[in-house]
Design a protein that fits this description.
By secondary structure, this protein is an alpha/beta fold. It has a domain of 150 residues: 3-Layer(aba) Sandwich (Rossmann fold). It is built from nine helices and eight strands. A five-stranded parallel sheet has the order 2-3-1-4-8, sandwiched between helices. The protein has a three-stranded antiparallel sheet with strand order 6-5-7, with no helix packed on it. Helix 2 crosses helix 3. The protein starts with a strand and ends with a helix. The structure holds zinc ion. The site of zinc ion has 8 residues, from loops.
Length: 228
């Protein structure tokens, strides 16, 4: 086992998050890893956590997100770097026998060329095997998918439902704020993020693109078999 970073790449709503969950599941079920040895860093979650913490930075982020704009590269880099070193220390302390036994899944980063350069910098002295995987999902599929999902106002879980109550806690289901501005986010993706994929070759040990319509389970199995 080697220290590995998996970059989950793709448009918003392309299913990269659920692919990440499936990869984690495969590593636990078939490679004998403990869930705690796998860190899942999602920039969406980092931003939502900072907003929930109501820090000064969180308030600033909240304003930007609510207006449908993207948070600056600088802010996101600060949050990602913090999360990366935290998971490095935390997971490192769990696996004394094999210090290389750790995997980080990175969801939603890098999203711009500036972010890619920042990430390359962060990884410079980490000696990680870096794999980038991309889901190519057609935009009309994404728009349909996003229009059919809601988030629970109470427990924040996402559900495939357009009305009713949260199946987990009975809370009210609402449209996720960033789903409401999906058109704008897809345009941002096409303009700023999609071109980053080719540049990732400069800093990755391996890269693989998948059809977004392929079953996430099958794709995750393939990735785990190939790289672990
Ligand atoms: Zn709920």
């Amino acid at each position: 086992m080697r220290k590995t970073l998996i970059i989950l790449f793709g448009a918003p709503g392309s299913g990269k998050g659920s692919l990440g969950d499936k990869i984690k599941e495969q590593l636990v079920n078939h490679k004998g890893m403990r869930a705690a040895e796998i860190s899942y860093i999602s920039t969406g979650d980092l931003l939502r956590e900072e907003i929930a913490a109501q820090s000064e930075l969180g308030m600033e982020i909240s304003q930007i997100v609510n207006s449908g704009k993207l948070v600056s590269d600088e802010i996101v880099a600060t949050l990602v770097e913090k999360a990366l070193s935290h998971s490095d220390e935390f997971v490192g302390s769990l696996c004394e026998k094999d210090p290389n036994r750790r995997i980080i899944l990175l969801d939603g980063y890098p999203r711009t060329e500036t972010q890619r350069l920042a990430l390359a910098n962060m990884l410079q002295d980490k000696e990680m095997f870096v794999v980038a995987v991309k889901r190519n999902t057609p935009f009309d599929v994404i728009k349909k998918r996003v229009s059919e999902r809601r988030v629970c106002k109470n427990c924040k879980t996402t559900h495939l439902a357009s009305d009713g109550k949260c199946p987990k806690c009975g809370g009210e289901l609402i449209i996720r704020k960033d789903d409401a501005v999906i058109e704008q986010r897809l345009t941002e993706y096409e303009t700023n993020t999609a071109p980053v994929w080719n540049k990732l070759a400069l800093m990755c040990n391996a890269m693989q693109a998948f059809d977004g319509m392929e079953d996430a389970d099958a794709v995750a199995k393939w990735i785990v078999k190939k790289y672990f």
